[in-house]
Design goal:
By secondary structure, the protein is α/β, with parallel strands linked by helices.
């Protein structure tokens, strides 16, 4: 018997595999391995998922090896072991070369040293509670490298909630660790690198195009077989509940890993309970460490007493907080005073304040409002607009100009959506923020008096708009913030944040912390190990409405990449990577309207369908506000986009 391949190779069926597999465990011995420490059957469902991950990854890898052997090629180069000592040495050399003479520099180094000293603690759950500007990114990396060395852990997974800053964070790591862009030590896996969704392409073509090492990076992204992975919250959490083999195959590589959850407070509240159960399971039964890293710790510990009684919080003693004395840190790093306006305001009043204040940022709740407010101030000197109606390349250019003008002391009057809060290193003396949860207000405050250059507290103004209302889904957050606003001298202090989450969680109740009843479904299926994995995958979605991209020919580079895509038989990977910075996400209905109106066209529709859609009219994209989707029939869908 032989296996016939497409290339007409004949390979004898492999015999004697049993001699290499070793003694297989009996079913009864496997049953004894199923843990019973975490209730409601979650541990059993998770174990099945992890076993499935091992199986499908082994199948993918063996198929890959099999075809390589059949075609006379060497087996693909895969994997890479974490060398924490080497990377720690590189990081220390980088830190030694930085200026640490300022007060903030010395304080950041103290925070980092304290975290490194905690690395000897046993693997498990940790918190890192540091105000914005305290150096969380490199502190968490320093801890992870030392912790991996102490406990022989295999990889570091850095989870970021915002795609807009993932490349920025990966670049910080590469610079700090002295890694080249093509180094397989660090991989990025997010929408721009989510190879599951892309056609395979021809690796030989990519090598000819000078993409040295990209093939290995792509393979590493498939199963996270790399020392350091930088990924998004969507990719990480949804994979934990996925049903597709291509998304599940990476899960077993989370065992004995260090998982750093940056801005952990952004986890959707309606998925809080299943998310907590997954993190607890990874640390309890798979030897992983999880670091919950944020300036606004979401009060998930038992001692925080913020969760409803039916929900068991994390057992994280204060000794496993990596920052030294967080309350004192908040006092020392306080840079702003927050005030709430008692009466609602209009765009006319906000524009008047912009006219009086030459350097000011105003953050609003929707792209539509950002566009309208910018129209009200566009004639003022230094008026700028930022939102995801602009492609990433456009936003980067605008941000670079804004930073230069701020450095030179020139007027900068910026209207933005909440994307500016996502780790953007920018510093204004005054920031206005439309009503929101305290975690969002804290992020907005992080863009004010960031380096304490004012010599006084910066001004942060929280306002309620006279006509613009936050979406209903966000109402509980700003209502909870309003109820605690006047109870504390510093509304962004640790006690205030804890009280805010207590209000939020109790207001929603235990059931609404698992709104789609994922845990109930697991409990119901536990007695017979009959788990509806596909239903779980459908229910666990961090983003309710998936956006669809519109490609923008914003500059010559984008136009060239689009031209290559339009003539290619198979989409070249380097072209797809380039075009990620020239997309604007819109709801499916909006993209369909653009297509129907002739404002956009599908590229090679006979080959790709509507997979690649490009803007086709010159006046459809504005140099100030980005994609024009302000026709009446588009407006309703667009109102709720952030």
């Amino acid at each position: 018997m032989a296996v016939r391949l497409l290339h007409d190779y004949s390979i004898p069926a492999y015999k004697g595999w049993e001699d290499h597999a070793g003694t297989l465990p009996t079913p009864s011995s496997l049953r004894s391995l199923i843990p019973n420490s975490i209730g409601d059957g979650f541990h059993r469902a998770f174990l099945i998922r992890m076993l499935f991950s091992c199986l499908v990854d082994a199948d993918f890898l063996e198929t890959e090896r099999f075809y390589a052997e059949a075609e006379g090629r060497p087996a693909p180069d895969r994997g890479g072991s974490l060398d924490p000592q080497d990377l720690a040495n590189r990081l220390e050399a980088f830190m030694a070369g930085r200026q640490q003479g300022s007060e903030i520099g010395r304080l950041r180094e103290k925070i980092r040293a304290n975290a490194i000293a905690k690395a000897e603690e046993a693997p498990g759950l940790f918190t890192l509670t540091v105000p914005t500007g305290g150096g969380k990114t490199l502190t968490s990396l320093s801890f992870a490298l030392k912790h991996a060395q102490q406990h022989n852990l295999r990889r570091i997974v850095y989870v970021i909630p915002f795609t807009s800053i993932i490349e920025q964070t990966a670049d910080v790591f590469r610079k700090a660790l002295d890694l080249k862009p093509e180094s397989s030590v660090l991989i990025e896996h997010h929408s721009a690198f989510d190879y599951d969704r892309l056609a395979p392409g021809d690796e030989a073509d990519r090598e000819e195009e000078g993409r040295a090492g990209e093939a290995k990076l792509r393979r590493a992204a498939e199963n996270w077989d790399a020392p350091i992975i930088v990924t998004t919250a969507v990719q990480f959490y949804e994979s934990l509940f996925a049903a597709r083999p291509s998304r599940c195959r990476k899960l077993h590589n989370l065992a004995r890993s260090i998982i750093i959850l940056d801005e952990v407070q952004t986890l959707p509240v309606h998925l809080l309970r299943p998310s907590m159960a997954a993190l607890q399971e990874l640390t309890a039964n798979y030897a992983a460490s999880v670091v919950m890293c944020t300036a606004t710790q979401p009060a998930l510990r038992q001692q925080d007493e913020a969760l409803p009684r039916e929900v068991s919080g994390f057992d994280i003693p204060q000794s496993r907080e990596l920052a030294p004395d967080p309350p004192a840190l908040y006092s020392r790093l306080r840079r702003v005073a927050v005030e709430r306006l008692a009466e609602p305001v209009t765009d006319v009043e906000i524009a008047a304040r912009f006219a009086d204040q030459p350097q000011m940022l105003c953050i609003v709740g929707s792209r539509a409002h950002a566009r309208d407010l910018f129209e009200a101030i566009k004639d003022l000197d230094g008026a700028f607009h930022l939102s995801t109606l602009m492609c990433a390349a456009h936003r980067s250019t605008v941000l670079a100009e804004i930073k230069l003008r701020l450095l030179e002391g020139k007027p900068v009057r910026l209207v933005s959506t909440s994307l500016i809060e996502a780790g953007v290193d920018i510093d204004f003396p005054e920031v206005w923020r439309a009503e929101a949860g305290l975690e969002s207000i804290a992020q907005a405050a992080g863009r004010c008096n960031r380096e304490n250059a004012l010599g006084r507290l910066g001004r942060v103004v929280v306002f309620r708009h006279a006509s613009q209302r936050p979406p209903a889904a966000l109402r509980p957050f700003h209502e909870a913030a309003g109820r605690v606003a006047n109870r504390f001298d510093d509304p962004l202090g640790i006690d205030s944040i804890r009280a805010y989450y207590r209000e939020l969680y109790f207001q929603k109740g235990a059931e609404r912390l698992d709104k789609l009843k994922i845990l109930k479904g697991i409990r119901d299926g536990a007695p017979n190990l009959d788990f509806a994995f596909e239903d779980m995958a459908d229910a666990y979605r961090l983003i309710d409405e998936m956006m669809e991209p519109v490609l923008i020919p914003w500059d010559d580079r984008a136009a060239g990449a689009l031209s290559r895509l339009e003539s290619a038989g198979v989409p070249p990977c380097d072209v797809l990577r380039t075009l990620q910075r020239y997309t604007v996400p819109v709801p499916p209905a909006v993209r369909r309207t653009l297509l129907d109106a002739g404002a956009a066209v599908a590229i090679q529709q006979d080959l790709y369908g509507d997979r690649f859609v490009r803007l086709s009219i010159k006046d459809g994209y504005d140099d100030n506000i980005g994609l024009r989707i302000d026709l009446d029939e588009w407006r309703k869908s667009e109102e709720n986009i952030f």
